[in-house]
Design goal:
alpha+beta, 2 domains, 5-stranded mixed sheet, 5 helices, 45% strand, elongated
Length: 247
């Protein structure tokens, strides 16, 4: 029932936004392709018994799908007032959008568990994987990791739970991860920030992506310059993630 409610919610929100953006038939862009629309500030009351973060995140993500980010912003005040800066054609559809949210059947926010693996590939004898990488070895092989005379080992594994649309952060021995994850109709939508400070190097990653629940995804990879026997040796870092809804 919960998944059905989420699907209905996202469908209604998308329809409301579509009506809003289609309210004006005039081309908002000039001959040079730049938008000359004026943005306006409007405030709205939060639907009763609805999570402020959930409403703000859903509206922000829907706007982000088709609008120039410089043209809008969504903020929530401490008194539960939704503050939206956007073109007037967008503002016209927001009351209906909030009405649809208020009408939907309410349910507790979902709990999402995200697991992160940070993997080092370094020169070795033959191709080998640490036993700790057994559950992600196949996704790594699919992108060409472990080919040649290399060894793959786990640098760090982090696991973090948070409520849907809630921001969370965790710091490990070498890495810090922040996340905001929403439950969509067919997948998870995740904003992930990762920073690494370790003996193998310093790096960072900031991305938004869709995740199929329960499946592993390679967030990215980066090159390393390692020292072995007093000489420089090439290596790579891999970032792997898996998201699961726990209730």
């Amino acid at each position: 029932m919960t998944k059905r409610n989420d699907l209905l919610c996202w469908t209604m929100l998308g329809a409301a936004l579509l009506l809003a953006t289609g309210a004006s038939c005039a081309d908002p862009h000039g001959a040079n392709g730049q938008s000359d629309e004026a943005v306006v500030l409007r405030t709205y009351l939060l639907p009763e018994k609805e999570s402020p973060e959930r409403v703000r995140a859903m509206l922000q993500r829907l706007l982000d799908r088709g609008e120039n980010e410089a043209q809008w912003s969504v903020q929530m005040t401490q008194r539960g007032i939704l503050s939206v800066v956007a073109p007037e054609r967008i503002q016209k559809g927001i009351p209906e959008l909030l009405e649809q949210i208020a009408k939907k059947e309410s349910h507790p926010p979902r709990t999402i568990e995200m697991t992160y693996w940070i993997v080092v590939e370094e020169p070795g004898e033959g191709s080998s994987f640490d036993e700790s990488l057994s559950e992600i070895a196949e996704p790594l092989r699919q992108i060409g990791a472990g080919e040649g005379e290399v060894h793959l080992r786990l640098l760090e594994r982090l696991r973090l739970r948070s409520l849907s649309d809630g921001r969370a952060r965790i710091a490990g021995s070498h890495a810090m991860v922040s996340q905001t994850v929403s439950v969509g109709p067919n997948s998870l939508l995740a904003d992930v920030g990762l920073s690494l400070s370790s003996p193998v190097g310093r790096t960072s990653l900031d991305t938004r992506l869709h995740l199929d629940e329960g499946k592993h995804l390679i967030l990215g990879e980066s090159a390393l310059s390692l020292r072995q026997d007093g000489e420089d040796a090439p290596g790579r870092l891999f970032y792997v993630v898996r998201g699961q809804v726990k209730n």
